[in-house]
Every structure is written in structure tokens, then in C-alpha cells.
Amino acid sequence: MAFRENLQRRFIVVGTLIIVAGLIAASDSLRQETEAIIFWTERMISEAPLLGMLVFVFLAMLSAMVAFFSSALLAPIAVYAWGKAACLALLWCGWFLGGVVSFAIGRYFGRSVVSMIIGEGKLTSWENQVGERTRFVHILLFQAVVPSEIPGYLLGMLRYRFIFYLTALGITEIPYAIATVYLGESFLRGNSTVFILVGIAIIAVAAFLFQIHRRLVKSGE
After folding, report:
1. For the stretch 14-40, what's the b/e string if a residue is b when 16 or more beta carbons lie within 10 angstroms of its beta carbon?
2. How many CB atoms are located within 10 Å of the residue 189 CB?
């Protein structure tokens, strides 16, 4: 039950953030203020492009490891500075590295450190969903639907096979990275309708995958 409630709360939070961002994109005055920040940041990046890319990758990595920060907020800046393809690649690399580092922390530092990072209550809730011998398709769905900062720490702590985790991580981050890039582009264009539709689609897909994951858990697969 706690597992389901955690995901439901996450969907509500994501949906609320998307609606707020869509309203900002639809408001000329708010969007102009946001664009001023984006343009100022892009000018700083243009003075040190390599450093800017490294900082963006680091922030994307950080967002995959902690709950209080999302690199999606930086997507419009990255799209404006480097274009969609580069933003997609940098975002995916950062998330992938974040997953690798969180897995290593879980594996080599164990439960005591992981519980400090994500909380003992959350850890216990998520821990009941997977195990060391959980099938790959289950891990793939688990990686797709739970908050990005959870799977690496948990699967590392449970000593899940690293190569399988990397495969699941690499696959599941691709659609989220693509959606994040297009959300960033829609925000820059002020296309609030597309922005909100893409956001709703993300929530719908995540909810659908969660239902499949829950059925697998119940069936014991």
C-alpha cells in the first residue's frame, strides 16, 4: 500500500508542476521573465561552452541521485544553448552517470547510508518490490515507474546484477529524456498546449507501466 501511495503522490506532484509550467508558458509576462533568465544563462554558457556542458551533466547526474532537484528545470536552457540533440545526449549521460554512482553507493556502503539518503520508511516500502533475483522485465518496469533516485541505491544495496541494472537504466531513461527535451522546446516556444499534452502523456505512460508492474508483483513473476 505504501508503495502505491508513494507513486500516486509522485504523479500528483509531477502533474502539478507540469500545469504550473504550462501556465507560465501561456503567460506572456511570466514567460518573458523566464526567458530573460534563460538568455542570461546562455550568454554565460557561450563564454565557456565545455564548462557549461560539464556543469549541466553534473546537475543532471545530481538530479538522478537526490529527490529535491530536477534537471528538467534546466532543459529549456540546454535546448536554447546547444539544441535538442545535444541536450538529449547530455541529459541522458547525466542521468545514466547518476544511476551508476547511486548503485555504487548502495552496493559498497549498504543500508545504513542508503537509509540516510532516501529515508528508512521509503527504503522499506520500495524494498518489498524487488530482490536480488528479480526478473529483468520486472526491474525494467520498476526502473521506469519509481522516482529516479530510488532504483540505483536500492538495487545496489540488494546486489542486483550490475549489467542488468545498467541495461534497464539506459533503456528507461531514453523516453524520459526525449520527453524532457520536447517539454523544454515547447516552453521556449510558448506552446503551452503541447507542453501540457506531453506532460499528461508522461503521467499516463508512467501510470500504465505502474499497473503492469503491480500485476507482476501480485502474480509473483
Report:
1. beeebeebbebbeeeeebeebeeebee
2. 13
- How would you classify residue 110: left for phi > 0, otherwise alpha for psi between -120 and 50, otherwise beta? left
| Position 14, amino acid | V
Please determine, for residue 1, whether its predicted confidence score (pLDDT) is greater than 50.
no
Report DSSP state, residue 131: -
**Grid cell at residue 154:** 536500492
Side-chain-side CA neighbours of 176 within 13 Å: the count stands at 25
Enter the DSSP assignment of 74.
G
Cα separation of 141 and 59, whole Å?
Answer: 25
Residues, the chain, total? 221
Mean pLDDT of 95-122: 90
Give the confidence band of 214 by pLDDT, cuts at 50, 70, 90.
Answer: low
